[in-house]
Amino acid sequence: MLKFYCLMAGKNGLLFSVDINKKQMVEDLQNATKDKWSNTLTGVDACELEIQLTKKGDEWRLSIIEHAALQLGEAEIPDNEKIPLTDPSALIEGVLTVAKMPDPPPGQIHLLVVIRQLQRKW
């Protein structure tokens, strides 16, 4: 079981964690995130959540301590790479392997969650 620490974009930088097995799929990660935010994300389907793996080189994006400094205006967001997890059928294990990332350690922010606005034509 892996524990990912996530940052919800546009929600004042609120942090939350999601537990998921590395043999589960990106879609399961979207559903677990939706479940965590069920009251806040009313009217948003899990498939509308874009999950981005955030890294800086071969390390995770930033520490939770750095995030606290960002919220206080004491630091700037470091350069980082955002890898959108766009294939809902991709295994979490495969995503980490392709991105050349280790299992997520505690004390780091691993994922950025963005609410996509799907264009509905019906």
TrEMBL record:
Record's subcellular location: Host cell; Secreted
Record bears the keyword Secreted: yes
Keyword terms of this UniProt record: Secreted
Tree of life domain: Eukaryota
Keyword Coiled coil listed: no
Broad class of the protein's primary localization: host cell
Entries under InterPro entries matching the protein: Crinkler_N
UniProt xrefs under Pfam families: Crinkler (PF20147)
An annotated GO cellular component: extracellular region
Domain Crinkler effector protein N-terminal: 2-114
Protein known as: Crinkler (CRN)
